[in-house]
Every structure is written in C-alpha cells, then in structure tokens.
C-alpha cells in the first residue's frame, strides 16, 4: 500500500472531499423549499469551493515544507524515466549548442557560459541515475538467472574433468555417464 491509499493518516484530499459533502448536506437541509435545480446548483457551488480549497492547499503546501521538493525521489521507473528523458534533452541541447557555435550563430563567450551550465546539469543527472544501486543488482540477478554454467563431467575411473559435450574421458578413455 502506498502513502496515498494508506488508512494510517488523513490525507488532505479526503479532508476537502469530506468538507464538500458536509457542506452539500447542510445546503440540502437548509434549502427545503427550493427547487431541485437550485439545490443541485448550490451543492455544486459547495463542491467547487472545496476543490478551490484543495487547489490552494496544493499550491501553498511546498512553502511550508521546502525539504520535500528539493530533489526528485527515486520512486520506481517513472522518476527514473523522467530523469533519463531530461538527460537526453540536456545532451541534445549540448550537441545543438556545439553545432550553433560551429555555424557561427553563438559567440564563444555565450558558448562557454551556456555549455558549462548544460554540462554541470548533465553530470548531475548522470550521477543521480548512477546512484540507483537497485538497478545494478536487478541486472546482475537477471544475468545470473540466464547464464547457467553447465557442470563439467568428471571421469568415475580417474577423476579427470572433461568437456561438457564429451562422451569418453580424455585421460583414460572410459565412458562418461551423462547426469
């Protein structure tokens, strides 16, 4: 279960949904003599206000806790994919910048300034991508599963290790038993 579906804590979207439901219920009880269209319109206005409150909370929440948005978190393939896409875009921008300099479209001063910023960003993205040890372990486990080294047969008579496809011992000539 992830944190959004966890029942341990009350999530902000749940609070605003509950507030909208309570507000719509109060509106229905207060407006007993109104037409159904008026009651529905008032209920939708209450839900709209709850939605605006949630949007405002999402907008201003990062100001209260800036540590959460400092760096992207490695939360599975999606974030890694986004980092790889950004890395590809930065490398393409470096290539385009070098081409523009070669064509004379960019001055040497601008090239060194922009190139340095892009190279620092690319190096940071590469470091961030390489820091994920879980992918290295997963790749090594997959390789270990796929690459199986067959056991070398040994001769029962003399104990000599033979090739995998051998039918007779290379030392004494005795027949090898297939396992």
Short précis:
The chain contains five helices and no strands.
Indicate the overall shape: flat
Number of helices: 5
* Rg calc: 33 Å
Percent in helix: 55-70%
SSE pattern: HHHHH
Task: Summarize model confidence as the mean pLDDT.
Answer: 81
The percent range for strand residues is under 5%
The computed structural class is mainly alpha
End-to-end separation in angstroms reads 46 Å
Largest sheet: none
Overall structural domain count: 3
Low-confidence stretches: 1-6
Using DSSP, what is the number of strands? Answer: 0
State the main characteristics.
179 residues; mainly alpha; 3 domains
Structure, described:
This protein is mostly helical and 179 residues long. It has three domains: 12-69; 77-146; 150-179. Helix content is 62%, strand content 0%. The chain contains five helices and no strands. It has helices at 12-30, 36-64, 77-102, 108-130, 133-146. Helix 1 runs antiparallel to helix 2 (36-64) and helix 3 packs antiparallel against helix 4. The relative contact order is 0.05. Residues 1-6 have low confidence and may be disordered.
């Amino acid at each position: 279960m992830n944190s959004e579906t966890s029942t341990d804590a009350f999530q902000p979207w749940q609070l605003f949904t509950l507030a909208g439901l309570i507000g719509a219920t109060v509106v229905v009880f207060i407006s007993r003599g109104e037409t159904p269209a008026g009651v529905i319109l008032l209920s939708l206005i209450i839900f709209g206000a709850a939605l605006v409150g949630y949007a405002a909370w999402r907008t201003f929440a990062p100001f209260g806790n800036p540590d959460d948005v400092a760096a992207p978190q490695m939360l599975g393939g999606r974030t890694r994919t986004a980092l790889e896409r950004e890395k590809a875009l930065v490398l393409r921008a470096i290539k385009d910048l070098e081409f523009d300099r070669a064509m004379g479209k960019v001055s040497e001063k601008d090239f060194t300034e922009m190139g340095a910023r892009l190279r620092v960003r690319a190096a940071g993205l590469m470091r961030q991508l390489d820091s994920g040890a879980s992918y290295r372990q997963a790749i090594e486990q997959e390789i270990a599963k796929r690459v199986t080294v067959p056991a070398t047969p040994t001769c029962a008579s003399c104990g000599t290790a033979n090739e995998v496809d051998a039918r007779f011992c290379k030392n004494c000539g005795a027949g090898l038993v297939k396992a």
